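pinging the channel bc i need a second pair of eyes. not urgent but kinda urgent?? the chain im working w is below, pasted from the shared doc
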Amino acid sequence: MSSHYLLKTEASAYSFADLQRDKVTVWDGVSNPVALRNLRGMKPGDKLIIYETGDRKSAVGAASVVSGDASDPKNPAVKIKAEYLLAKPVTLAQIKSNKLFADSPLVRQGRLSVVPLTAAQYKFLTGD
């Protein structure tokens, strides 16, 4: 069974459009110990939501894990691929107002860049 995660990115540094252009990338630049632990836990087939910080503050796209290499625990190499642009971006305000996210690190630990999601949270964000 696949897991679900939300990955935050600063759109001016690497946007979902950049991921769509590249098709596949290695997700890196993570330094927070909790975020690193979440990244190391990713497995091929896990489902991802790409969330753009900065001006947008919205979940904008879906992606998936292609492969993971946690041999370097301080810099795990997780390869992800773009799946699709969300039909409608989901703003941080919409996320915060939904009771599904009341206990989520997405709301409680705003600086966390790799956040686990429940299947219900993932479904809400993708609109499926």
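so DSSP finds five helices and six strands in the chain. and The radius of gyration is 13 Å. — does that match what u expected or am i reading it wrong
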